[in-house]
Amino acid sequence: MDTLLQFLGLILHIDKSLGVFIQNYGAWVYAVLFLIVFCETGLVVFPFLPGDSLLFIGGAFAASHEMDLFALIALLLVAAVFGNTVNYWIGRAIGPKVFDTNIPVLERFLDRAALQKTHNFYEKHGGKTIVIARFVPVVRTFAPFVAGVSSMSHARFQLFNIMGALIWVLLLVLLGYFFGNIPFIKQYLNVIVLVGIGAAIVPVAIGALWKMSRRNSKA
């Protein structure tokens, strides 16, 4: 429980946490950012990680010369593209049966309601989902998985994957770079992080509650 609270504290105050980490560990901060973005986009059980907030705050630190802007952008682009690619191949490996059968490991961690909504969105918008989803928490994590499940060709997937990663990373990092150190924004940065986390966690929580209510109604 203490570890969970420490993790939540780290995420909620990620602007201060990153500053302390940079002071203590220097360039290792790039590895941490890579890992967080990769896990959020590459592992379907981590949709709650604060990708948007992290990119924005990273850009703000680059503006204050505590991080290198070009290294940050390059690293995050690789993490975003590689994460989505891994997620896509997981979807390809599992296949359509994920919607039809109960896989014990997935059932424990997977938000099936969010997965189904992403699948419906994908059916409507096709490959554009991979680009649009970059800006939608939770959907961002499930979109490449659904593309793999739906057997989108790898070449077509990578086209949308790279396009989406470029737009997402460049936009949010540069927004942080140019606006992240404005006093008003710095003062309310925790609120921005909370909103980003809430946008990711609330749908997952609603899905979990919905699943529990269905189980109770069947009991």
From TrEMBL:
Transmembrane segments: 29-49, 69-90, 129-147, 159-179, 191-210
Highest rank taxon of the organism: Bacteria
Membrane topology annotation: Multi-pass membrane protein
Subcellular location: Cell membrane
GO cellular component, one term: plasma membrane
InterPro entries, per the entry: DedA (IPR058127), DedA-like (IPR032818), VTT_dom (IPR032816)
Family affiliation: Belongs to the DedA family.
A Pfam family of this chain: VTT_dom
Protein name: DedA family transmembrane protein
Record bears the keyword Membrane: yes
Keyword terms of this UniProt record: Cell membrane, Membrane, Transmembrane, Transmembrane helix
Domain VTT span(s) in chain numbering: 49-177
UniProt KW Flavoprotein keyword: no
Phylogenetic placement of the source organism: Bacteria, Pseudomonadati, Pseudomonadota, Betaproteobacteria, Burkholderiales
Species for this entry: Caballeronia catudaia
